Amino acid sequence: MSTLSNEDLTGFRDIQRLAYDCAEAIAADLQPGVSEKDVAKKMESWLMDHGVDDWFHKPFAWFDDRTAFDGFIGFKHLGGFNPAFYPSNRRLEEGMPYILDCAPSRHGYTADIGYCGVVGENKLLDRLMDDLLEYRVLLLDQVRQRLPLADISRAVDSLCARHGYEPRHKAYPFETLAHRVELLKDDGKQSHINLAHFGLRNIRELATSGWDMLSGGDSPIWNSGKRADHAPTPGLWAVEPHLGFRGTGAKWEELLVVTETDAYWLDDDVPHVRRWQSRGIWPMEKVA
Amino acid sequence: MNEIKRTITVNGVNLHVREWNPEAQPTIVMVHGYPDSSHVWDATAKLLAKRFHVVVYDVRGAGESDAPKHTKAYSLEHLAGDFRAVINEVSPDNAVHLVAHDWGSIQSWESVTDPEMASRIASYTSISGPSLDHTGYWIGQRLKSGKSSEYNKVVNQLVHSWYIGAFHFPGFAPALWNTGLDKLWPSLIARVEGGVEALPNPSQRKDGVIGVRLYRANMSQRLTAPQEKHTTVPVQLIVPERDKFVTVELLDDLHKWVSRLWRENVDAGHWLQLSHPQLVADRVSRFVDFIASGEDDSEAPVALRRLQVGGPRKKYSGKLAVVTGAGNGIGRETLLALAEQGADVIGIDIDPIALDRSIELAQLLGANAQAHVMDVSDAAAWEAFDAALEENKDCPSILVNNAGIGMAGPFLETSTKDWEKILGVNLWSVIHGSRLFGQKMAKAGRTATIVNVASAAAFTPTRTMTAYSTTKAAVRMLSDCMRADLADSGIRVITVCPGIVNSGITDRSNFVGQDEAGENQKRARASALYARRNLSPKAVARGILNAIDGSRDEVLVGAEAYGLNWLGRFAPKLARRIARYDLAG
Q1: Are residues B137 and B227 in the same domain?
Q2: d(Cα B82, Cα B90) in Å, to the nearest integer?
Q3: Which residues of chain B are within 8 Å of residue A161 when distances are taken between CB atoms?
Q4: Which residue, among A130, A69, A164, has the nearest Cα to A284 in the 3D structure?
Q5: Does the interface predicted TM-score (ipTM) exceed 0.85?
Q6: What total number of domains does chain B contain?
Q7: What is the pLDDT of residue B163?
Q8: Which pLDDT tens digit goes with each residue over B268-316?
Q9: How close, in Å, is residue A38 to chain B by CA atoms?
Q10: Yes or no, beta carbons of A246 and B365 under 8 Å apart
Q11: Most buried of A12, A80, B297, B430 (most Cβ within 10 A)?
């Protein structure tokens, strides 16, 4: 999987754009009063209408303090499996931060994106979203230096500490900062089996790599743990730094292409980059 | 200062008026409560008369003023009429600054919320006397809320107001006053208020007996059928926290009625002007000076600006908290937790970039936050910081001495310079901060708290952290001694002993007796240990705030802190034995 053809990369870029288009379309329609479940369902049907035939995971939506996974469901409860990411009945209000997260597949190509925003204004969220730029720069810079993934993850932890944030991606299963995304076979079917919001084929890929990891292979999960203490594995990684500060959370998620010697973001034309551009803070050379 | 007496007659009722320094401007008029006479203001009036024209009068029924027979003559309308007549006489051309206490304050709300009087009252300082109309709404809204916590607030206030019900029983209060309560009264106040010397009042019996009519003429009518009473007059509330008759919660809704409102909670009982005349005089002059200056509210002196009420009250609204080592870890989290709960905060740190970040976050939480970059081990820097606050007549209510550095390595290889550095940051900073601000706090007349962050390393010895453990044990003992010494000044001292907190302290620790590579290796190992334990600075901040709100003197955070404390107390021999092993390896 280390050699992705240009055609494959285009396929991945298209599905990532579709996923972000979906998030932007749904976000533009968001009104106070809708629930997380309503929004997740809307995203799902929007994507199905646009030819999505499978999932890494179905769409999630989080509002208010759920954007930071605040409260009891935090770091290590339930052995790394955190049901807090399932959409709830929480309703959106003016000024509340929200996150939309979806991971659709189409013709065997999969994307995984995270999009955040607010109806109205939220200065704290603006600060978090601005600061997220440093993580994008830091991650790419360190992957290019081919530092061990665990070290990079710890550098992300340190940057969070410096910013005064909590790395809330640690509330994801296996404290995932990023996970592998594999090319699936395009079998022409309109839909595929999924279990508890997760697409079986994508999870099987992940589990297979996990199994290989036990016999000396690389980890399909990129976190601060021992298993990820190896140089960046070539292929596609869905990277998702998620920051939390006292009940407000923000994230982005996009595909990073890692080759044997280099790395680059699959697409720079994503909403958070456009936002940084409009705020005059992009491009950023290096994290201070 | 000469006292001038005069009598003003309103509808046939003679009111006894006394004034000082009539040449001065502006005029301050003070209205007393029940069961007092205007003499309750004497000490405060004399302090204020140095700069202002001060007027006091005996309310109808009290002191040397006439006492109409009918209960109806004591309605709020009549009392407001008396006030209007007095100010028209003593200050016909200029608006007056009104100061009132207890029933004086209750009746003054009637004037302050009267649109026709708005041009005659320049400001209002209210002590322990809410508007009956506002109180009626307050009770109504809580009863309508359907929440048991809100019901409890009403019940709590009613319990504090037990005497009001009793006063409605015919003959009850007069009988008390006529059977010796008048003689007992000064000593009773002294007992209730803790050490206040109230002079025997010659008209005490009359004030007590007649004044009951105030309650009977107004209470039930206003509380059950309250009117909407708004005001544009600037109002300063001084709220004695130990008031046995008026609960603090009663004033929480006031910002809905008063467009320009300031509020300060003070550590005192109901008769504030008897127990703290200087404090009352200071607060009144500051407020009068500011209102008279005509400046915009945002230009008020910082200590006053902090007290302005813009919306619902938070736990530390109106308080200033100073936190050292606020650039990261426990200090930053404590600063943010205090800011989140409404405190104004000043963060101190030696690292300007880290500190600016903390301050920015505190501001995003809506707090008024300031950075002060300084080396906490430097006595002169503390003096300068203190002087800067003094210039604004400002004083923190909460001081968190958190700044600290780590140090590890063999005793014989710890140099004098190493010792000086760690003693400076970990111990001297606590001494400097506590000494300077303790003095200020003792004078300020508010409840104040000093929090000293020690460590679980204060409990048991270890061969690997001699210098660090020594400083922390010293901070713990210093705090214990300070607590005993400062208790009489109303200053609480809290010791915090966290365990292995992942605060980044290891990144800034010195590992003495190592070359650079060795030090980096030791540091990485220690950081890994701290990360594995993963006890968050937030948990310590939570412990600190719980201690500030509660009553505990010493707070332990983390299981290891409890374990080491137990070991040090009950198995000291074993602790000394364990100390010989290098556990961090």
Answers
A1: yes
A2: 12
A3: 328, 504
A4: A130
A5: yes
A6: 2
A7: 67
A8: 888 999 989 999 999 999 999 999 999 999 889 888 999 999 878 889 9
A9: 30
A10: yes
A11: B430
Whether B57 and B90 map to the same domain: the answer is: yes
Going along chain A from its start, the domains and CATH numbers come out as: 6-278 (3.90.230.10)
B537-557 pLDDT, tens digit each: 999 999 999 999 999 999 999
Highest-scoring range by mean pLDDT, B2-6, B194-198, B474-478: B474-478
Is B336 within the bounds of a domain? yes
CA of residue B15 relative to chain centroid, distance: 36
Residue B471 belongs to domain spanning = 320-499+536-578
Is there a contact between B364 and A124 if contact means CB atoms under 8 Å apart?
A: yes
Q: Which residue from B minimizes the CA distance to A126?
A: B364
On whether residue B518 sits in a domain, the answer given is: no
Phi and psi torsions of B214, nearest 5°: -55, -45
Q: Where is the domain boundary, B305, B340, B370?
A: B305
For B357, the closest of A75, A124, A163 (CB atoms) is A163
Token code pair at residue A276: 């940084």
A30 pLDDT higher than 70: yes
Question: Please, which residues have CB within 8 angstroms of residue A91's CB and are 6 or more apart in sequence?
Answer: A32, A33, A34, A35, A63
Select which of B57, B74, B124, B468 is catalytic: B468
Q: How far is CA B347 from the centre of its chain?
A: 20
B512 lies in some domain: no
Q: What is the separation of C-alpha B44 from the centre of its chain, rounded to a whole number of angstroms? A: 20
Q: What is the pLDDT of residue B267?
A: 82
B64's tokens: 């040397």
As given in the structure block, the two tokens for residue A233 are 């594995």
Tell whether B223 is covered by a domain. Answer: yes
Please give the distance of CA A108 from its chain centroid, rounded to a whole number.
18
Q: Give the separation between CA B430 and CA B475, rounded to whole angstroms.
A: 7
Each residue of B343-353: pLDDT tens digit?
Answer: 999 999 999 99
Sign of the torsion formed by the C-alpha atoms of B409, B412, B413 and B417: positive
The CA-CA-CA angle for residues B357, B505, B566, to 5°, reads 130
pLDDT in tens, B113-155: 999 998 999 999 999 888 888 888 888 878 877 777 777 777 7
